[in-house]
Each structure stands twice: as C-alpha cells, then as structure tokens.
Amino acid sequence: MKRKTFFNYSLVVVAFFAACHISRKNVPPIAPQPETFDTEGHRGARGLAPENTWPAFRTALDLGVTTLEMDAVITADKKVVLSHEPFFNHEISTHPDGKPVTEAEEKQLNIFKMPYAEVARFDVGMRPHPRFPQQAKMKATKPLLADIIDSVRQYMMVSRRPFPYYNIETKTQPSTDNIYHPEPGEFVELLMKVVKEKQIEEQVIIQSFDFRTLQYLHKHYPAIKTAMLIEDNDPRDLTAQLKALGFTPYIYSPAYKRVTKELVEECHALQMRIVPWTVNTREEISQLKALGVSGIISDYPDLF
Fold first, then answer.
1. Phi, psi (degrees; rounded to nearest 5) at 55
2. Parallel, antiparallel, or unpaired for β 67-74 and 80-82?
3. What is the pTM (predicted TM-score) of this model?
4. At residue 13, does pLDDT exceed 80?
5. Inter-residue contact 128 to 109 (CB < 8 Å)
6. Other Cβ atoms closer than 10 A to 213
C-alpha cells in the first residue's frame, strides 16, 4: 500500500514538472496589448550600447520598452544574424586581429559570403561611435537572431517582466539580390524558420523598405504583422505607397519628419498603426505623441 501511494505521488510530481516545462515552452509570451503605446528601442538601444547586440537589447529591456527593433541579414551558411548592414560597417567594426575595419574595405567584408563562425570573430562594440558619444564600449559580436530570442526569454522570465515584441527589418533591395542577401522569398523563409522554431509568431513584426518582402509575407504568412518603412524623401503620398504595396499593413512606419496630424488621422482611418523613426529628443517625442502616433522608435529608450 505504501509503495503504491509513493508511486502515485511520484507520478503527480513528474506530471507537475512536465506541465511546467510545457507551459514555459509552448504558451505564447506575454506581450503588450495592441492599443498600448509602442516604445521601441532602435537597434536595441543604439545611443547607449553597441547596436544590434545583446547588451543593447538588455539595456532596452531594462528601460521598459515594449518592442525591440532590430535588423536581420543572412550568412553564407544561411544563418539569420542581427546587423544593420550586410557587411562590417567601419564605424563600429574591428578585425579579429584587432585592426579597425576601414571605410575602403567594409563592403568587401560581405556577411552573405561568410559562415557565421567567421562573422562571430569580428568585434562590433569596442570602437567609440562618432555619432553616439553616450554609447558604452564593450566587447560584442553580431548575434544570431535565435540566440537573442533565447536570451530575451530567459532574462524576462527570471526578472518576471512581460515579454517584448520583436520588430525585425529585412535588409534587402533589388539591386543587391544574391550579392549581399538572398532574394526576398528565401530571406523570408529563413527568417520565418527561426520565428516558428522559437514560437514568437504572435510577438513578431516584420518591417522593410523593400515592399517585395512584405508582399511575400502577406501572401505566404498573412497572420504575421508587417510594417511598411518609408524614407523621408519618398515622393509618394500614403495612398500611392499603399497602392504600390498592394495591401494595408499592420504598421505604417515613416521617417518622423513626415508625420503630420493629417497623416496620423489617415492611418487611423485605415485602422493602421503609425510608428515613426528615429526620434531622439524628448521634445520631438512629446510633439509626436501629441499628434496621436501609435508608438515611436528611438536610439535612446531612456527618453521614454
């Protein structure tokens, strides 16, 4: 009788811990509600820590952002890596032997032609940034998207804080297809493979200046939120931009100086959120909030 009771108790204990493991793995992370004002740390927190690296994302999380904004590129061995350029920008990069990357050579250091093991040998955190004097200097490398998602999940679970959204930009353009990156369809499939493996479909937004990326997503992954990025010198109005895209995205994300009260009202009338980039003063953040924007992307998430 005692052995049977112990056996039953053991089954209960095993079932409990199994349930805990399953719930942590499979239940979608907690995230802000859609109506929440969206505070996004640009490239993590570029003004405060090395861009698109774990220290920058951790800094942004500690400052309470609702969304981590980041950029994705692809390596020769088809890994999704976080980097603004598909090469090693001379402003932030150092060779494995300690020599600074020069402007003359940077575009030859093509990440699309390197396996990730080689990419990870370059430092992108030790050089003082000429445009961001507050940026802390530390050893850092370009991380895999998959590793950042794991780090964020662990960090937020330990600190018992809500999980963020991920706003991931695909760095593609027609002129550099198959030179610095795959064509949009392959790029999206590689990115979505990570998104699905890490079970963050509900927490991800895919943004791009390249409408081809967004069109592929809309056709093949219609449930994934998309954001249409717009340059400050785009000659088209909102109607023409949406016509070129072919559908209404979840977010309209223009350069912040394009934003007017009329533009905000147009977006809201279309049930489209408007999240301008990149806003780096408290005064401008306050002005844009007063216009009714849905969120803001900033290099300095401490300003929020």
1. -55, -35
2. antiparallel
3. 0.89
4. no
5. no
6. 24
- The tens digit of pLDDT for each residue in 182-233 reads 999 999 999 999 999 999 999 999 999 999 999 999 999 999 999 999 999 9
Burial of 217 (0-12, 13-18, 19+ CB in 10 A): buried
Token couple for 150: 């794991």
Residues 210 and 173 sit within 8 Å (Cβ to Cβ)? yes
SS3 string, the chain, reads: CHHHHHHHHHHHHHHHHHHHHHHHHHCCCCCCCCCCCEEEECCCCCCCCCCCCHHHHHHHHHCCCCEEEEEEEECCCCCEEECCCCECCCCCCECCCCCECCCCCHHHCEHHHCCHHHHCCCECCCCCCCCCCCCCCCCCCCCEHHHHHHHHHHHHHHHCCCCCEEEEEECCCHHHECCCECCHHHHHHHHHHHHHHCCCHHHEEEEECCHHHHHHHHHHCCCCEEEEEECCCCCCCHHHHHHHHCCCCCEEEEEHHHCCHHHHHHHHHCCCEECCECCCCHHHHHHHHHHCCCEEEECCHHHC
Beta-carbon count within 10 A of 289 CB: 14
CB neighbour burial string for 253-263, b if at least 16 within 10 angstroms, e if fewer: bbbbeebeeeb
Who contacts 211 (Cβ-Cβ below 8 Å, separation ≥6)? 228, 244, 245, 246
